[in-house]
């Protein structure tokens, strides 16, 4: 039964990718990002605020780092994901996001001093070929004669930023609980996102957008991180991390049923290459260390 925890978590995060796409016609990305964390903070405050206040002296020296983490992992990463939904498919978004563990490995080299092996490089090449095959609709050299869509480019930037967030979270080990980390970063996110929300054409969410906001705020920002952390404690970090490789398959399936997206052979072949490359790159990496992500 413990294995259901990471499985359900990946399903929730996969559903959030679908939400990113479905919500584009209901609410502006800036407002969506703001309300997601505004509601999450309201829900978490009764459980976390007292703990944060009592630990304020411990937290104070880390406020600058927590603000940067919030900017990378919650403000930029998530906002770019919502903007990407305007011009790319959920299928592409999931495939690009699946490269995050691979980016973590290479970003860890300068930030954590980790060695990059030949297996890492081979895995990276396979994954990038798969990604190019998918984005080019079967043409891996498409980048030389046409530009990638804005949405795909935004998702690529978002994935690199989130990988940086994960590595910095590993580098800056702080004496705080997981919920304190999430709560304080959420507070910073609300503050940072407030000016963008105020610049939106519509300050209040539409009734049609409320279910999407609730899903992102409650399921993706609170329930999923809790289950992921619980799974790591029960199953171990390495075993739990492998479930992330199911994300593209889950999102592709959901995209067919909920968005009516058509899946072509280049999606399947490119996706298999991406997943194979990421798993190959993770094999030797997990023997030495693990960088786990909390997709908030």
Q: What portion of the residues fall into strands of 2 or more residues?
A: under 5%
Shape: globular
Measured as a percent range, the helix fraction is over 70%
| Unreliable stretches covering 5 or more consecutive residues | 285-291
Largest sheet: none
How do the helices and strands follow one another from N- to C-terminus? Answer: HHHHHHHHHHHHH
Tally of strands: 0
Radius of gyration over alpha carbons?
19 Å
| Mean pLDDT over the residues | 87
What is the first-to-last residue Cα distance?
24 Å
Q: Please tally the helical runs, counting DSSP H or I stretches of 4 or more residues.
A: 13
Structural class computed from helices and strand pairing: mainly alpha
What does this structure look like?
With 296 residues, the protein is an all-alpha fold. It is built from 13 helices and no strands. α4 (63-84) packs antiparallel against α8, α4 crosses α9 and α6 (100-112) packs across α8. 47% of the residues are buried.
What's the helix and strand layout?
Blueprint: H1 4-22, H2 29-54, H3 56-59, H4 63-84, H5 90-97, H6 100-112, H7 118-135, H8 150-171, H9 178-198, H10 210-235, H11 237-242, H12 247-259, H13 265-288
Helix pairs in contact: 1-10, 1-12, 2-4, 2-9, 2-10, 4-8, 4-9, 5-8, 5-12, 6-8, 7-13
Q: Summed up, what is this model?
A:
The chain has 296 residues and is mainly alpha-helical. The protein has helices at residues 4-22, 29-54, 56-59, 63-84, 90-97, 100-112, 118-135, 150-171, 178-198, 210-235, 237-242, 247-259, 265-288.
